[in-house]
Amino acid sequence: MCALFKIERRDDFSETVARLSEIVGADHVLTRIEDVVPYGFDATAALKTGAPCVVLPHTVEEVSAVMRFCREAKLPVVTRGSGTGLSGGSIPVPGGIVLCLVHLNKILEVDSENLTLLAECGAITKAIDEAAHPSGLFYPPDPGSMSISTIGGNVANNSGGLRGLKYGVTRDYVMGMEVVLPDGEITWLGSKCVKDVAGYSMKDLFVGSEGTLGIITKVLLKLVPRPKARRTLLATFDSMESAAASVSKIVAQHIVPCTLEFLDRKTCESVEAYAHVGLPTGVSAVVLMETDGHPAVVEEEAVQMAAIAEECGAVSVERAKDDAHAIRLATARRSAFSALARVRPTTILEDVTVPRNRLVDIVSFVEEVGKRHNLQVATFGHFGDGNVHPTILTDEKDEDEMSRVDEALSEIFDKTIELGGTVTGEHGVGLAKKPYLKRQFDKSSYALMRKIKRTLDPDGLLNPGKIFDLED
Q1: Contact (CB, 8 A) for 196 and 169
Q2: Is 338 within the bounds of a domain?
Q3: Tens digit of each residue's pLDDT (9 = 90 or more) over 123-145
Q4: pTM value?
Q5: Distances (CA, A) of 408 to 301, 390, 437
Q6: How does residue 12 score in pLDDT terms, banded at 50, 70 and 90?
Q7: Range of the domain at 149
């Protein structure tokens, strides 16, 4: 674990602060402990440190100038948006600076003819969809933190969301981007063209790179027509295995709803106590099912999903009474993390993905591991795309319990890989998953990633120590 708010400054840091202040203005360089403390952590449990200063640029030219200076001074740079990450990817590096991009927050263009939107990296994800709405368009990716997360952070981590089953993840909507490279050069990658295969797809290299290869400052996003109809259903089950089996069967029947979300008993109880939306609390599992599109197809799929849930042993299948009811149900699922965070002092929200036909295996294994290590574990997730969030409710001050947490997580990651899965489906690697990445990749694949890092960032200044170490 990182030291709590440990600030490391070089002997000559006053000169560094002076130079940075010349670039962005003294008011936009934070150095007081009380000002920099909030930038010492993200939403990842038990990972906290500090930075000697936080720099808040307002233009890409300022970002470029800061990066040129940092390269000259060999100063590590950690880029940050709203700090909603769940992998420790924006945790500061001792002796380096935090480059916070929240002031680059403009939505620059909605192009309804080409179905695209251009935004600065600090634009809020939800605001992007809201900007597309008046044109009858839709930005589908919807991470749980969409009301506060930034689009730059979403792209850097290739964020997913509840609608990932039907609409995909952030990568599927990135058509272009402006990037500041480690030497300060500003470059544009991609275009508005639906078909563009000229050269390497360089933009895709930066999607999911977690700030280790370049600094994303603008993003060109693909939009789609807004669906004309939507239906939401809530199915309850006596066992997690039956719930997972119903999801697998829905997908196997070639039905592709926009949402297939799963909550276990512990999550349902916590969410209902927190949000009071009428979720059942006396069942083992709940599956939230949502279909959207043409009204006739939506109605047909809703009927089919209800029938499959009943075949798999659903205790009940309830259809949302109206749009307001549907929104309440979706909001309940989105509040799962916040609700569970109230139960114990520390909430470790994990993220693994398995092939959809192995959902029953991973859900059962998580439950068994929790019991064996005497831990409180709640499980929820995007079951439609095989993405599961085992959530351990613990106390980071209890060393014995945290040791058991580490053992349980290690077993869950190993089982995930054994089932043909991945140790992260949407949260990224950062610091939290770094120890497990080698288990998933073969030796040559792992080495290739490090070669790319060395090529683009030879001085190792951008988010060093995240994803992997250059020498390990």
Answers
A1: no
A2: yes
A3: 999 999 999 999 999 999 999 89
A4: 0.93
A5: 38, 10, 17
A6: low
A7: 107-225
